[in-house]
Fold this sequence. Notes:
- By secondary structure, the protein is α+β, with helices and mostly antiparallel strands.
- Helices cover about 45% and strands about 35% of the residues.
- The protein contains four helices and eight strands.
- A six-stranded antiparallel sheet has the order 5-4-3-8-7-6, with helices on both faces. A two-stranded antiparallel ribbon has the order 1-2.
- The radius of gyration is 26 Å and the shape is elongated.
- The termini are far apart.
Amino acid sequence: ILDVVACRLDAGFVVNVKDHAAAALADRVTRLTMRLDLATSAAGLGFWELDLITGTVVWDGTKYRGAPRSSYELTIEGFLSLVHTDDRERIRKAIEDATTTGVPYVERFRFVFPGEAVRWVEARGGLERNASGEAVAFSGVSHDITEQVQAEEQRDTLQTAVQRREDMIAVVGH
């Protein structure tokens, strides 16, 4: 619905147009953005994008305990410098493969923040292409899975201890 108000002045007309649909749409986008922020925060999700034209990585670090900043804008090398040294080459290769071949990107790795805060991340992403089919961005979502990885490590330790105990009981039983 448009409201149009026109006033005649000596030099011409002044027209004021108010688009109620545009205002309602802007309000809806604001509400949806707030809901998305709440959902991603509750789930520990963050968004990231590698602009393939500029080589710039924009990454939302708010979801990671120990991240010194809430968001990052850096080069791919700057991004990789935050990745644990044991994971860095694998992640570099996975990014290259995904951006050159278009294969889906699903990786688990560690970030190391200043002060030695280490967080485990699972990242998923894919290529974005322009209307001409050229790859212009590589973007996705990352999930802080640190607590999950720690729980898996504890489970593995307990399973090993139980297996050793069972092995000892079997030896003693013979």
